[in-house]
Design goal:
By secondary structure, the chain is of the alpha/beta class. The protein has six helices and nine strands, in the order ααββαβαβαββαβββ. The N and C termini lie far apart (43 Å). The structure holds S-adenosyl-L-homocysteine (SAH). S-adenosyl-L-homocysteine binds next to β2, α4 and β4.
């Protein structure tokens, strides 16, 4: 499986780094075959640009444009796993960021709607989705704390920025039987990843694990 280091790959053996990446995911609890396959198909290296590009296959969050971060791969995997996406599902992601999480979801769901408050991040992510032929993702710049009522209801909602509480408009846009995964807590502290399941008569809440995300901020950003 290994290939000799070349001039194109000064940091070492790319194939081996990708294999270690998948191994790290498994060892941190990302064990579902469908999720691992989707993550194997999406090259994180394409979503990390500039200074940190050579760390793309390490299990750590990294800076992206607009002062935001691409999440830690094992957290992406665990959130995707908790979301339990089905092939016919329509998914909303709040917090497009680099587009990495949306690209993974696109391999698991029928359609992915993703929104970010930074137009630049959306623009860059759309270019990547087009290059990868991911035609089932629709990305727009908007304030995701209000969801996307025109496209609702959703089978699954994933929020990749921390809210103080699960946002009411998002809960309202979840189908009965639907699942939302959202980090909840103050932005400068450790937050809890919460799984919200909607039933015919109400909502169930399950606390999954501590996480640390950038805050969900209201309004569209200037850039
Ligand atoms: N899922 C991303 C990482 C997201 S980082 C990835 O895979 O790379 C969190 C993102 O949430 C940031 O890009 C930030 O701009 C966005 N965000 C914060 N508040 C928001 C809001 N109210 N509406 C939409 N996006 C928001």
């Amino acid at each position: 499986m290994s290939e000799a280091p070349s001039g194109d790959d000064p940091g070492g053996d790319l194939a081996e780094r990708k294999m270690r990446f998948l191994f790290a995911l498994r060892s941190r609890g990302v064990t579902e075959a469908r999720v691992l396959t989707a993550m194997e198909r999406v090259d994180r290296g394409l979503f990390v640009k500039g200074l940190f590009a050579d760390r793309a296959y390490e299990d750590m969050p990294l800076p992206i444009s607009c002062g935001q971060t691409i999440s830690q791969p094992s957290v992406v995997g665990l959130m995707t796993q908790a979301l339990n996406v089905q092939p016919r599902d329509v998914v909303l992601e709040v917090g497009t960021g680099s587009g990495y999480q949306a690209a993974i979801l696109a391999h698991l769901a029928r359609r992915v709607y993703t929104v970010d408050r930074h137009r630049r991040l959306v623009r860059e992510a759309v270019e990547l989705f087009q290059g990868l032929g991911l035609v089932n993702i629709t990305a727009v710049a908007r304030d995701g704390s209000f969801g996307w009522p025109e496209q609702a209801p959703f089978d699954r909602i994933i929020v990749t920025a921390a809210a103080e509480d699960p946002p009411g408009p998002l809960m309202a846009q979840l189908k009965p039987g639907g699942v939302m995964v959202v980090p909840v807590g103050q932005s400068d502290a450790v937050q809890s990843l919460i799984k919200v399941t909607r039933h015919e008569t109400g909502f169930d809440y399950e606390e999954l694990r501590p996480v640390r995300f950038v805050p969900l901020v209201e309004g569209i950003a200037a850039d």
